[in-house]
């Protein structure tokens, strides 16, 4: 879901085989989830909660935006991987705070459902890349509107509609198809594999959190 320009760099790295490209992309994705799992299982939630929320969110935003900026500008795999970790670590710390509010059973179910949806959307992204490319702008507009609506509900009325979780989950399902389809169409370089993994990681994490909310409400 990162900007298109991130993936439009060509000729800046040596092209690699399709197998190597997909292996690197998958390995980077798994690295991000492994880091998240490690943080969630080893960092006590009360340690993070002891940090003032405003300070934590400021650090979270600065770190993740720095990571996105590095990925966006970098043409070197090492720098892109650094940017990726600057996104993964603060999200992992956020999960340390968020996940204790949910039951272990719902977390497992959400992980399983997210995995199935991710694989399904990747298959669709491979089969119909032109379709997902056409709907990308619509998905972006829908996501912006959803964010504005949710913020308006929270700040103005102190409420939130359960339907918004379903809407946002559908949007990120679409983004997985978009980003996977794009990943298979751009030049196969190590840097592009890392950049593609970063976008897919953000899509999958956001989808997981929405599914977790939906299942917990049930």
UniProtKB/TrEMBL annotation:
Keywords tagged on the record: Membrane, Transmembrane, Transmembrane helix
Membrane topology: Multi-pass membrane protein
Matches recorded under InterPro entries: Bax_inhibitor_1-related (IPR006214)
A Pfam family this chain is assigned to: Bax1-I
Origin superkingdom: Bacteria
Gene Ontology terms: cellular component: membrane
Chief location category: membrane
Membrane-spanning segments: 20-39, 51-72, 78-99, 111-131, 137-156, 163-181
Protein name listed in UniProt: US12 family protein
